[in-house]
Amino acid sequence: MSRNVLVRAFAAEPVAMMAVGMERGLVYVANPNSAERLKMGLTEAVGVPEEDVFDFDADIYREFKKRWELGERDFWR
Predict the structure, then answer these.
(1) What residues contact residue 2 under an 8 Å CB cut-off, 6+ apart?
(2) Which pLDDT band holds residue 1 (cuts at 50, 70, 90)?
(3) Do 67 and 18 contact (CB within 8 A), yes or no?
(4) Phi/psi of residue 75, each to 5°?
C-alpha cells in the first residue's frame, strides 16, 4: 500500500502525506519525499487515526492550506 493522502494534522493543519500501511484503526503515513529513506529503514511512518486521513485531492489541499495559513481551523467539516 502506498498512496497519496491528505492528513488533518495538529491544529487542523492540512498535510500532504503518503499512506504506507493500516493497522488497528491507524493509517501509517510518511512524507512522500522520504520514500527511499523509509524503504532503507532510516525513518519510520507515523500512525494517524483513520478519521483524519483522506484521499488526496490537489485542489482541496491548496484551498485548505490557504485557509489554514489565514488562521481558519473549521474548514474540515
Answers:
(1) 18, 19, 20, 35
(2) low
(3) no
(4) -85, -5
The predicted-structure confidence for 19-62, as pLDDT tens digits, reads as follows: 999 999 999 999 999 988 988 999 999 999 999 999 999 999 99
Would you list the domain boundaries of the chain? 3-69
Could you give the CA distance from residue 57 to residue 30 in angstroms, rounded to a whole number?
A: 17
Which phi-psi region, left, alpha or beta, contains residue 11 (left: φ > 0; alpha: ψ -120 to 50)? left
**pTM of the predicted protein model:** 0.88
- DSSP labels, 3-46: EEEEEE-GGG-EEEEEEEEEETTEEEEE-GGGHHHHHTTSS--E
